[in-house]
Design brief:
GO biological process, one term: pentose catabolic process
Bound molecules: ribulose-1,5-diphosphate
Catalytic activity: alpha-D-ribose 1,5-bisphosphate = D-ribulose 1,5-bisphosphate
Largest sheet: 7 strands, mixed
Number of domains: 2
Strand order of the largest sheet: 3-2-1-4-7-9-10
Shape: globular
Family: Belongs to the eIF-2B alpha/beta/delta subunits family. R15P isomerase subfamily.
CATH architecture of the largest domain: 3-Layer(aba) Sandwich
Radius of gyration: 20 Å
Number of helices: 10
CATH superfamily of the largest domain: Translation initiation factor eif-2b, domain 2
EC number: 5.3.1.29
Order of helices and strands: HHHHHEHEHEHEEEHEEEEH
Protein name: Ribose 1,5-bisphosphate isomerase
């Protein structure tokens, strides 16, 4: 349980972050927990796995990759403890392998849409979006990137550092400069924390303003998302919860300690409606947002009836 707690803490404090990495870390945690779990009966085994699953899922509420990963990794059908343990280890490993392969495939599929000379705007720090950008660059396309700072946690700094490692020229801008620079942009590429059955995107706060500005300037808006970022619950109308993080990420409490009429809000994600999204690059191909339901139903790995 100590290792599970450690992983949960790293997810909560964002030492492990980004919807894909969170999902993989949770699958690893479930796998290692199952491997070492001492249970006298199947009931004990099931309830311990259930408890650990719920605990991991509670660490961050928005990234649907987390419950999807936990659900896919912790599946077993056997009524025997040893066999069930082996099933979980196998399913978790399959999930982790698929997640790595999905990132590569998204890079290959998405990079075909990038032209030589493209200026790409990205937001926050998405490994899926970066996979497209770095693959295109490795394919010999001379591209450059405008990266938003992504306040308050400034994940944009991770993005410019990552791209700099490949020798890709980047320009760092503050979030509020997105519309100002949209005229210089050819394509916007962002990642996803969740995609709803109606094709709406949930991603880092501010994503929807990139989408709006791209729409206004008639620039292509591309989302990079593994199939495990699609939200099964939205088929039956379950809302995706937007994580509200601590106010001290936005402003040092000491600075506003003397103000009694001020509240500070810090939503971590926002919604971008499907109508502003031109395409979603997934590991099974490029789809229009209207096909999100089909991805959930046919490719996510479990029956819709199970939701
Ligand atoms: C990260 C974020 C990323 C998505 C996709 O938010 O919004 O765009 O998670 O990332 P946070 P990836 O920093 O709050 O976790 O493509 O790496 O899964």
């Amino acid at each position: 349980m100590d290792k599970v707690k450690e992983t949960a803490k790293k997810i909560r404090t964002m030492e492990i972050r980004g919807a894909g990495r969170i999902a993989k870390a949770a699958a690893e945690a479930i796998r290692d927990y199952a491997a070492g779990l001492e249970a006298a009966s199947m009931e004990e085994f099931s309830s311990s796995i259930q408890e650990v699953s719920s605990f991991l899922i509670s660490t961050r509420p928005t990234a649907v990759s987390l419950p999807n990963a936990v659900k896919l990794a912790s599946r077993y059908s056997s009524g025997n403890v040893e066999e069930a343990r082996q099933e979980i280890i196998k399913n978790a490993n399959i999930f982790i392998e698929r997640a790595d392969r999905a990132l590569e495939k998204i890079g290959q599929i998405g990079s075909r849409r990038i032209q030589d000379g493209d200026v790409i705007m990205t937001h926050c720090n998405s490994h899926a979006a970066l996979s497209i950008i770095t693959t295109a660059f490795k394919d010999g396309k001379k591209i450059s990137v405008i990266a938003t700072e992504s306040r308050p946690r400034r994940q944009g700094l991770l993005t410019i550092r990552h791209l700099n490692g490949f020798g890709i020229p980047t320009t760092l801008i503050v979030d509020s400069a997105v519309r100002y620079y949209m005229k210089d942009v050819d394509k916007v590429i962002v990642g996803a924390d969740a995609i709803a059955a109606n094709g709406a995107l949930v991603n880092k706060i501010g994503t929807s303003q990139l989408a709006l500005a791209a729409h206004e300037a008639r620039k292509s808006f591309m989302v990079a998302a593994e199939t495990f970022k699609f939200s099964p619950g939205t088929i039956v109308g379950n809302p995706i919860e937007i994580e509200e993080r601590a106010a001290d990420e936005v402003v040092d409490p000491a600075i506003i300690a003397d103000l009694s009429h001020v509240q500070v809000k810090n939503p971590a994600f926002d919604f971008t409606p499907a109508e502003y999204i031109d395409m979603i690059v997934t590991d099974i191909g490029i789809i229009p947002p209207a096909m999100a339901y089909t991805v959930i139903k046919d490719h996510l790995g479990w029956e819709v009836e199970e939701i």
